[in-house]
Predict the structure.
Amino acid sequence: MNETVLCVVGNVATQPVYRELPSGPSARFRMAVTSRYWDREKSVWTDGHTNFFTVWANRQLAVNAAASLNVGEPVVVQGRLKVRTETREGQPNWASADIDAVAIGHDLARGTAFFRRAAKPEAASAPPRPEPNWETPAEESGDTQAQQHAESVAVT
């Protein structure tokens, strides 16, 4: 399996676009990642180059990302990197960096979040399952009685 899996920390740059497709829900948004470095001469943190990624989410991740993310929020995205090059408007070597997301979350180093578990669609239609009976039976089985008898004989 030759894939480039990465974890990227940055900010949501565009509002997520959500679509229902025949293959299931899909969402995408742009993410900005700016490197920062310590400038020794000025003794301040300085912004470096900004990279932009298009983040793609599918199925339940798409539903949750569209409902949870807003422009400017700090996020952490883990997924597979896909770099595409093509010719656009007569200019060759136009490149796009996409991330096929596996996990998306808010960056808790820069703020707080409130987690709410999403309801599973199939759980709503399923009948409630009865609680299992964890009590041990009051009757003793024949094997247990034989074992107790063997222990009492050994003691006497």
